[in-house]
Amino acid sequence: MIPQEYIYELTQRNDIVDVIKGYVQLKQRGRIHSGLCPFHNERTPSFTVYPETQSFYCFGCGAGGDVITFAKRINNIDYIEAVKMLAARVGMSLPDEDDKIGKLRSKILSINKSLARFYYDCLNSDEGRDARLYWRKRGLSDATIRRFGLGYSPDSFGRARDYLYSKGYTEDDLLQAGVIGKSEKGSTYDFFRNRAMIPIFDLRGNVIAFSGRDFTSEKPQRKYVNSRETLVYKKSRNLFAMNIAKKSGSRRYILCEGNLDAISMHQAGFDTAVAGCGTALTVEQVKLLSDYADEVVLCYDSDEAGQKATAKAISLFENSPIKVTVLSIPNAKDPDEFIKNFGADKFSELLNGSSNAVEYELKKTLAKYDIKTPDGRVGYMRDAVNILAGRLTPIERDVYAGRLAEETDVSKQAVLTQLDAAVKSRQRRAAKAKEQRLVEESMGGTRINARMPSEGQKAFGVAFAERQLVGAILQTPQYIKLAAQKLKPDDFISADMSSVYALMLAHDNEGRYIDLALLAGELPDETVNGLSSIIAHNNDIKLSERDVNTYIDRILKSKPESAEAAAKTPQELAQYINNLKKEKK
Fold first, then answer.
1. What is the pLDDT of residue 507?
2. Which of 392, 423, 440 is the last residue of a domain?
3. 62 and 81 in one domain?
4. pLDDT in tens, 198-240
5. Is residue 542 part of a domain?
């Protein structure tokens, strides 16, 4: 365990505002700072930093914590690595800690680097002749092959394994890295065999995974075999070729369906082409793109699967500030084929003429209906109005309403009336969802123990008292002594607050500090989010000793026979929170 004194000094020397400013553009509003959340896509800021408590909380996605938690999440590293990173930032000596996970991560990256070199050397050997021919048939130059580190995995069950053994790595190392498999009989074998190899890099240029393509048949059963997820590789969080694209001066990125499409585009001079890693587009990948791009051109295949992928991508970008356009590729099944047949200049013309997401969806919707018939016009109008009720400005809605009126021979006023109703309906649903989210937010996802089944929603009132008590102790740590005289962790009905309270008691008994940063290293991320929510909701409230006694009394009276102690519904609870803030002000 890292000494508490070390963590305390580390957090004192790494001001949370200064650290977060390296990743998020913050604006100061009084005593707090706010900006767009780096952990989910949003158009209006809900991410808040509290200098006084050295904490952060996002009212949109619920992520929260201290400066170490932030460093851990934003860099996708573990707790120990985050501590080391922050220590290096302020010139502190590294903690004396056996960093097993960090060492394993470094070892896996080293294994992947050695294996990528092995595959590249195999490609350029005699046995790699067919694989070299395959890459060249795909139109790739030697320079492109070198740039992307393309290679070949030998047709052998143990060549790569034995090579890595010769480098000093153990069987367990290779299993952890996912580069070998193990049969039921206990024998090991190379995960990739007789495939054209494509290494996948992270933003720092580390090899984190591989994709192996079958080049021996026209219609292979498994065209691609991709690395399993490991300590260093989460396919939902990475984009192929992002390490190269991020160096471009352009803020318009091209999102492809496959890695070979991206490679072909780079060779043709389109240096912001990226692709998914064997999975459909994810929220994490959209967030990654939003850090580098102002516009994303969706460039998926023209088949049915590609059209479904395009529709899903459009929906994922809906809450992102990124401008989205959609590329239609005529006379070719994918970008790679189009570039080969018609050249880079023609592809550039396509890019510049790509339609925006609304145009794409309207065109796709129109193709479903025969608007020469009344039923067809009604169906098209209904779907088109729902599309236009999305994230458009009033001016954009007016323009598209005029076009829709011309297409369907319906008056523009009728279209605008329907559109206005659809917008209001969306707003009502959004407001209702927001209200529910605020109630859940105020409870921080509290998990309530099952010892009060008859109380139902009334238990939320007691859970709120428990959260407020924990918040009061975080504000004024000496309150733990007052609480300790009357309460035990078993008196809590919410499992997460019970565990936090038990940890606080342990810290106090051992003479350790009670502080978010010192608690966070011993708690699950979900619980840390909850603590950050408590701090955020009490930011403008100073909880007194009288408040503490009130919360303790309420918790002690929360036995099943006393319904009064837990009398608040979630809606009453939300109102109670607002009233409390007003009273304290």
1. 94
2. 440
3. yes
4. 999 998 899 999 999 999 987 777 889 999 999 899 998 899 9
5. yes
Mean pLDDT of all residues in 326-340: 86
- DSSP H or E stretch at residue 210: strand 207-213
Query: Are 65 and 144 within one domain?
Result: no
Measured at the CA of 271, the angle between CA 267 and CA 272, to 5 degrees, comes to 135
Residue 355 burial (10 A CB sphere; 0-12, 13-18, 19+)? middle
On whether both 464 and 542 belong to a single domain, the answer is yes
Q: How far apart are CA 195 and CA 108, in angstroms?
A: 21
Instruction: Report yes or no on 547 lying in a domain.
Output: yes
- Could you tell me which of 479, 471, 536 has the C-alpha nearest to residue 500? 471
| 355 SS3 class | strand
What's the CA gap between 322 and 398, in Å, rounded? Answer: 22
pLDDT level of residue 570 (50, 70, 90 thresholds): low
Is 59 strand, coil or helix?
coil
Distance between CA atoms of 497 and 449, rounded to whole angstroms? 11
Q: Provide the CA 72 distance to its chain's centre, in angstroms.
A: 13
What's the Cα-to-Cα distance from 48 to each of 38, 95, 247, 523, rounded to whole Å? 11, 30, 30, 21
- Looking at the fold, whether 430 and 536 belong to one and the same domain comes out as no
> Which of 90, 116, 132 lies at the terminal end of a domain, its last residue?
90
CATH number at residue 33: 3.90.580.10
389 lies in the same domain as 452: no
How many Cβ atoms are within 10 Å of 225's Cβ, its own excluded?
19
- Specify if 242 maps to a domain: no
Q: 183 by DSSP, 3-state: which?
A: coil
Give the H or E element holding residue 296.
Answer: strand 295-299
For residues 432, 436, 438, 444, the Cα torsion angle rounded to the nearest 10 degrees is: -160
Please state the domain count of the chain. 4
| Structural domain contains residue 185 | yes
Q: In whole angstroms, give the CA distance from residue 506 to residue 514.
A: 10
Report how far apart, in Å, the C-alpha atoms of 304 and of each of 298, 316, 333, 361, 392 are: 15, 19, 11, 15, 27
Pair 103, 181 in one domain: yes
DSSP 15-46: -HHHHHHTTS--EEETTEEEE--SSS--SS--
- Both 575 and 457 in one domain: the answer is yes
pLDDT digits (tens, 9 = 90+) for 488-522: 999 998 889 999 999 999 999 998 889 999 999 99
- Distances in Å between the alpha carbon of 328 and those of 299, 335, 433? 8, 10, 36
Look up the domain containing 408 and give its range: 368-440
Please check whether residues 501 and 519 belong to one and the same domain: yes
Mean pLDDT of 40-68: 93
Is residue 50 within 8 A of residue 536, CB to CB? The reply is yes
Closest C-alpha among 107, 106, 102 to residue 87:
102
